[in-house]
Fold:
Amino acid sequence: MLFKQLAVPLASEVVDVDLSRSLDDDSFKAIDEAFNDRGVLVFRGQQITPEQHIRFSRRFGELEIHVLKQYLLADAPEILVISNMMKDGKPVGIADAGQQWHTDLSYVEKPSRCSILYAKEIPAPGRDQTYGDTCFVSTEAAYDSLDPDMKAYLGTLQAKHSYLKRPHIRKKLSEEQKQAVPDVIHPVIRTHPVTGRKCVYVNESFTTEIIGLKPDESDALIRQLCALCESERFMYRHKWRVGDILMWDNCSTQHLAVADYGPDQHRLMNRTTVAGPAVF
Ligand code: OGA
Ligand code: MN
Structure:
């Protein structure tokens, strides 16, 4: 097994691993350590069943069952389908999994540790250009770039996160689904549960308010922190191939799905979501 660095502050490719087989403890430990350190890992050329995807994901923790029940695989509800495809007049998965910068499930008390996405179909394969790339940034590198006074100030603040900040999500949810995701409050700077490194934990999709600031100051600070996190110097852009498995850390990174393809260009991904601890 070999690790190849893909960008400077984050992301490595793991070469020579077949994730359809169960990993021995030493291989898992090496992957787990690289993952905590690099925030994003990419495995190319994989061919896995839902069961194998679930088995690999469970090595990292308990799996979550997503609130959007209509997009879970019927015989494997740990798998959430992300797709723009239709079957019998109905979408087979979530078409917009996150076209704004975000980190998964920051709107719950215990956001997921990581998400693991497997590419089954990608838009217009075989062309020079790729479509439906996913971009990642390091919120750890964003924190490290701040000056000491700003680090100290931000360390005193907390922010509100709401799933309902995304209007298209709000429209789709039933009252019951809405009640299952009440707003939560997290520190603006969070500590990585394994490495102890500090990360900026404010994102464009779900952070609605910095507690204790006037609305215009709160909005301005959210904008400033999002702009910092989203900067190119902290970024890795993944160009998908069928058979890629990609996993990302939901504390030390943020991500965004690039929506540059049409409804006839099919994209189909299976995702598992690994549970994480309360934010601190
Ligand atoms: C997700 C997500 C990005 C993509 O699954 O959480 O943001 O490119 N997906 O599909
Ligand atoms: Mn996401």
